[in-house]
Input
Amino acid sequence: MGADPTRREEALRQAALGHLSAAVAMLRPLAEASGDPEDRLLIGRLALVLTDDRETRDQLERAYREFRERGLPRRAALAATWLAVHLDLLDERIAARAWLDRARRLLEPEGRCVEQGYVLVALFGIAVASADALQENARAALAVAREFRDPNLECKALADWGLALVSRGQIAEGMAHLDEALAMITAGETRDPAVISQAVCGMINACDRSGDLARAETWLRFVEERTPAEGQGASIHTFAQCWRALGSVLSEAGQWTEAETLLRLALARGDRSYHFARLATRAAFAELRIRQGRFEEAARLIDEGSDRVEVLGPRARLHLAQGRSDLAAAVARQALRQLDGDRLRAAPLLLVLVDAELAAGNIEAAGEAAEELARMAELTAVSTVAAQAALAVGRTAAARGDPAAAAERFAAGLAVMHDGAALLRAALHLALARAQAGSRPADAAVNAQTAFAVYERLGAPEAASASELLRELGRPASPAPRPSAPLAALTHREREVLDLLPRGLTNPDIAQRLHITPRTAEHHVSSILSKLGLRNRSEAAAFAASFRLAGESPAGR
Output
């Protein structure tokens, strides 16, 4: 006999509000009393969002066995599917595939059913490297969802399909699918926390891949408003992914101070989430450190044992920045082999491959990669991809001794650029300046100064190259003001207070440690939140915890 429907409905209501721990606490005794595997399946799925590994695996495995014992293969297949999701998030991908294969086998004799749709879109869309596979499965799952009128499956399929379309370069169509999925959540058509988490992560990551800063900020505010419960697994995983994605967009846009704040929050939250989230957040932070020329710090953040695309990208860029062009090319190729149809993530990797081959003196190989990137740009009609292709083709032309052709391509790349992607624009300006230096020195100086202004303002290592070119052109560089680091606005005492927040100390505890009054400690905490743009003490604690995870200290010790 199932659980008390009234208590079960209240637990579901609590889950929909984000109070997942309370929902699990209500359901656990009911599941023990009822012996109904449906109750165990629900607890396991909620525990998955709570990132409770032990509870998730125990409840889902028990649900699977009990469904099998009762002769319910469809429900057993669904339990197996959620086990696969759990294992994939732990980066146990062989075991995850085995459970998905088991789910498919159980459903083979069952005819068409809604569980087949859940198997098709089982994994988190953001963790699927192949945009082609993601799109194919999402399209099929959406048909199943609408046939069986399952709004949770429909929302998940829409979000996955939208992310796949954006990744393929069909941004308007993809965002329309994602907006529809998020509208279903806003309207309350889906209340499943796992689906909500995946759909929101899909939207924010689509914004990351397409560079849509405005939309990313809008949906992050939506997440913040819907996640009032601090410490809930839903907020841990979802916020980690949202902050990571938005931080990546800001990093590429040249807003490094804001990017670092968000990436630090993502790093701290991601460290408490699943293995995939930890990998992705550390890789994104490493990307920022590479752009800043802080290679040793970047290396500490990159997991050398992972072959996930999220990690391979920054690893290839780090190798290239350190002059190891052969390794950079090999890692870039390894990543590109996984990205079937994912043009937005493949394009920057192809540019890395071009630069690595040129650095190694392999001009023909660089040309082939540049041509592939140019073909990709024609298929996407995305300005950043077109600009990356122009940069790749232009650099190859320059290496072949044709500066005029190179300049033409660099200028074409700048012509298609819109707002955002400040670093890509600066790279085009600097490349154009080099190509013009011998024939049009005045134009070269203007472009070099434009690039220098961006790089100098950010403190990027490319500023030295731009400055050297300006000196060669007889035009000394004009220094630009640099942005401050996130902690620059804090006093030494405020940094000491910030360093204590991850330990869960109260204001009186902090006051005792630092020999100040509790009122002074309270004032310091309020000042820290204001200066860093953080919402509450929990975010400040997460921000401070990121320094330990990155091998640093906010107090400077």
